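Record copied across here:
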Amino acid sequence: LIGVSRTSKIPISIYLANNNYKVANIPLMPEVEPPKELFEIPKHKIFGLILDPNHLVSIRSERIRAMGLTGTSNYGSYERVMLELEKAQQLFDKLECTVIDVTSKAIEEIAAIILANIIRR
């Protein structure tokens, strides 16, 4: 699973692992190159997770508040979210991986989509 912060990579990974699937979780950040090993994985085993940018801004803003952080942080800004999502989409295109929009989807629903894609191949 690859995606930007707050796209439910960890809960999906745990759910799949609890169902006896081996899962790798790779967070994407524009400032950090993805591991070269990612390009060695068959594309049908890679799933890129995206989220509606406005929804992601809302989730991140709530996360910042919950952590008691104040001041200026671009982590929750719309511009930062758009930059991260654009860079992630560029990587997804390069990898030719399956992309799943996780906006308003339950963890179980996302896992079912992933498993359906794996079984189909």
User: Anything to note?
Assistant: The first helix runs from residue 9 to 18. The mean pLDDT is 94. The chain has four helices and four strands.
